C-alpha cells in the first residue's frame, strides 16, 4: 500500500506542477520556486508532515520535499544552536542531496558532451 500512496501523492504534486505550467503558463523556474517555498511554508504550519507520513517518498522526493527538508533542518538547527541554527540547519540537512546533484551533474558533463541551447 505504501507504493500506491507514494505514487498517488507524488503524482498529484507533479499534476499540480504541470497545471501551473500549462494552464497558468508559468515557466518551470517559477514553478520550482513556488514548490520549494510551498514545501517550507506547509512544513512550518504543520500541513506537510502528515502528507509525508501518508505518501513517503512520493512527498519527500519532489520539489516540495526539498523545502520540507530545508524547514525541518532549520527547526532542528534552532533547537540545537538557538536562532543562529536557523541559518545553517537547512543547508546541513540537505547537504547530501545538494552534493550528489553537483557530483553527478559534473560526471555527466564529463561523460557526455554538453552543448548550450541556441
From TrEMBL:
Query: Does the keyword tRNA processing feature in the UniProt annotation?
Result: no
InterPro entries according to UniProt = Spore_V_AE, SpoVA
Coiled coil regions in record: none
Annotated transmembrane regions: 6-24, 31-48, 83-112
Q: Which UniProt keywords apply?
A: Membrane, Transmembrane, Transmembrane helix
Keyword set includes Cell membrane:
no
Q: Which PANTHER family match?
A: STAGE V SPORULATION PROTEIN AC-RELATED, STAGE V SPORULATION PROTEIN AEB
Which NCBIfam families does the annotation name?
spore_V_AE
Protein name (database record): Stage V sporulation protein AE
Q: Which organism is it from?
A: Anaerovirgula multivorans
Amino acid at each position: 500500500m505504501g507504493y500506491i500512496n507514494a505514487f498517488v501523492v507524488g503524482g498529484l504534486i507533479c499534476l499540480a506542477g504541470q497545471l501551473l505550467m500549462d494552464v497558468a503558463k508559468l515557466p518551470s523556474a517559477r514553478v520550482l520556486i513556488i514548490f520549494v517555498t510551498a514545501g517550507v511554508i506547509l512544513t512550518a504550519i504543520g500541513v506537510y508532515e502528515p502528507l509525508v507520513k501518508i505518501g513517503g517518498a512520493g512527498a519527500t522526493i519532489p520539489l516540495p520535499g526539498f523545502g520540507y527538508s530545508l524547514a525541518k533542518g532549520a527547526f532542528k538547527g534552532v533547537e540545537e544552536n538557538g536562532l543562529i541554527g536557523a541559518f545553517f540547519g537547512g543547508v546541513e540537512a540537505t547537504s547530501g542531496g545538494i552534493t550528489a546533484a553537483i557530483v553527478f551533474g559534473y560526471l555527466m558533463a564529463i561523460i557526455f558532451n554538453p552543448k548550450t541551447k541556441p
